[in-house]
Amino acid sequence: MKQAIRQSFFILALSAVLGTASYLARPQVVPSGASEHEIELAAAQELEGVLWVDARMDADYEAAHLEGASLLNEENWELGFASLLERWVPGNPIVVYCSSQSCLRSHHVAARLREDLGMEEIYSLQGGWEALREAGLVEGGER
Amino acid sequence: MSPRVFSWILYAVVGLFFGIAATVKLLDPEAFLSSLLTYELFPYEVALGLAFFAPAVELVVALALVSGVWRKGAALLTVLMLVFFIGLVAQGMARGLEMDCGCFGENQLQTTADYLIKMGQNVLLLLAVVGAWLVEKRFGSEQV
C-alpha cells in the first residue's frame, strides 16, 4: 500500500506539471479572472446607464431576449460590435449575459469588449439567462 | 487465458476509457470547464484548475495502467477518482440538476435514467480495476 501511495503522489506531481504546461501553452482558450468581472443581477440593475449585451447564439436572441439588449457574439463580432457602438454611450457600463452560470460566452465577449473599448466596467452576469428568467425579466427562450 | 493477461486486459480497458476521456478534455478545455460549472459545486477558479489538472491525471493514469509503470499508484488513483465521479454525479441527481457530465465531451445528464447509466458506467470501471488488482495480487504479477 505504501508503494501505491508513493506512486500515486508521483503521478499527481507529474500531472500537475502537465496540466500547468497545458494551460500555459494556450491560456486564451479559457477566460481567466472571470469571477472578478462577474456581477449579480441586483447589482447590475443598479448600474446607471447600463447597456445589456446578449452573447447567446443569434437564433436564441431572435427567439427571446432582454428588452433593450444588443446582440453580440463571437460568431458575428463585426456586425454586433458596430451595432453596439451605435447604442453605447462611452463610459457607461456594459453587462453581458449568456445562457446560464455554466456558459462561458459572456466571459469571452466581456473580456474582448474590455480590450476593444479599453474600459473595466464591462461585466458578465452571474447566472445569465436563467437568472433573468428567475427574476421574471424575460420569458421562455432556451439556451 | 492466463491470469496475468486477464489482469492486463482489465487494466487496459480502464486505461483506454481514461485515455479517451483525457484526450477529449485536453483538446477542448473550455467545454470541460463549462461542464464542470454545471455541477454547481466548484468556484470558477477551482473549476478552471480542474479543467487542466483532471485530464492530465487521467492521461498519466491511463498510460500507467496500460504500461504497467507505477500501476499500483495508478490503480489506487483510478479507484479514488471513480468513487469521486460517482459521488459528483449522485449529488447532481439528488439536487435535481441538469448537468453536463463532460466525461467524454458533451454528455447531458437530465433524467434519472441518464444519471443512473452514468453511475453504472463508473461502477463497471471500478469493478474492472478492482478485479484486475485482485487478480494481480492473487497471482503475484507485478507487470505484464
Tags for this model:
heterodimer, A: 143 residues, alpha/beta, Oxidized Rhodanese, domain 1, five-stranded parallel β-sheet, 6 helices, 47% helix, 11% strand, elongated, B: 144 residues, mainly alpha, two-stranded antiparallel sheet, 5 helices, 77% helix, 3% strand
List the topology elements.
The complex is a heterodimer of chains A (143) and B (144).
Chain A: H1 2-25, E1 38-39, H2 41-46, E2 51-54, H3 58-63, E3 70-71, H4 77-87, E4 94-97, H5 105-117, E5 122-125, H6 128-134
Parallel strand pairs in A: 1-5, 2-3, 2-4, 4-5
Chain B: H1 3-27, H2 29-38, H3 44-67, H4 71-94, E1 99-100, E2 108-109, H5 112-139
Antiparallel strand pairs in B: 1-2
Helix pairs in contact in B: 1-2, 1-3, 1-5, 2-3, 3-4, 4-5
Could you tell me the strand content of chain A as a percent range? 5-15%
Helix content of chain B: over 70%
Distance, first to last CA of chain A: 48 Å
Q: CATH topology of the largest domain in chain A, which one?
A: Oxidized Rhodanese, domain 1
Number of helices of chain A: 6
Major beta-sheet overview of chain A: 5 strands, parallel
Order of helices and strands of chain B: HHHHEEH
The overall pLDDT average of chain A reads: 89
- Largest sheet descriptor of chain B: 2 strands, antiparallel
How many structural domains are formed by the residues of chain A?
2
Number of folding domains of chain B? 1
* Mean pLDDT over the residues of chain B: 89
Principal-axis shape of chain B equals globular
